[in-house]
């Protein structure tokens, strides 16, 4: 567009509406809309418009309705499986019982637990009865080690999506977790 023609046009169009309409028409003809300049940028580009806000062109309504989802959107939240009963968890347990990655996780966890149980049992047999205070220290240390293993298992299974699992010391919740593991074991054996 000829800048001199725009100056002549501005005398008959003091609010520069014709110029804005031509800009809008140019934008409509382009396949992708250009970035919309901020109000400050528009003011500074035309000395006659200093201090006056210019209307911003609006993107077409259909563009946002038909736009694909943004790639950086987080996935939908996972359902909360923590407080499911064994019967409510059954469909998810059936799926997990066939998941090779999950089964390897279960087997690794089981081997770690078996090793701790053997080590604690061997340690118990090696101890001589007699010093009651030493026996209490050993029992407290063993229980602490067991509780740490249980917490690690709860977190591991929670992250893996096993229903009923979250970190807890509640006897009722732990009993529910034990029942869910028993049911999972039965499902795994049934698939073999």
Automatic annotation (TrEMBL):
Residues 24-137 are annotated as: Disordered. Residues 68-78 have a biased composition (Pro residues). Residues 38-49, 109-130 have a biased composition (Basic and acidic residues). It comes from the Eukaryota. This is Uncharacterized protein. The lineage of its organism: Eukaryota, Fungi, Dikarya, Basidiomycota, Ustilaginomycotina.
């Amino acid at each position: 567009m000829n800048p001199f023609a725009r100056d002549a046009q501005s005398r008959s169009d003091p609010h520069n509406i014709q110029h804005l309409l031509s800009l809008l028409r140019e934008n409509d003809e382009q396949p992708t809309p250009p970035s919309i300049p901020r109000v400050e940028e528009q003011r500074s580009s035309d000395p006659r418009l200093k201090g006056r806000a210019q209307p911003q062109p609006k993107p077409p309504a259909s563009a946002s309705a038909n736009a694909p989802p943004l790639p950086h959107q987080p996935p939908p939240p996972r359902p909360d499986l923590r407080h499911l009963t064994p019967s409510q968890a059954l469909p998810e347990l059936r799926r997990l019982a066939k998941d090779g990655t999950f089964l390897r996780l279960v087997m690794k966890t089981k081997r770690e637990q078996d090793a701790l149980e053997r080590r604690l049992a061997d340690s118990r047999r090696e101890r001589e009865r007699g010093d009651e205070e030493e026996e209490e220290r050993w029992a407290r240390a063993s229980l602490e080690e067991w509780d740490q293993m249980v917490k690690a298992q709860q977190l591991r299974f929670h992250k893996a999506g096993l229903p009923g699992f979250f970190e807890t010391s509640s006897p009722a919740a732990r009993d529910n977790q034990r029942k869910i593991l028993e049911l999972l074991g039965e499902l795994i054996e049934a698939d073999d």
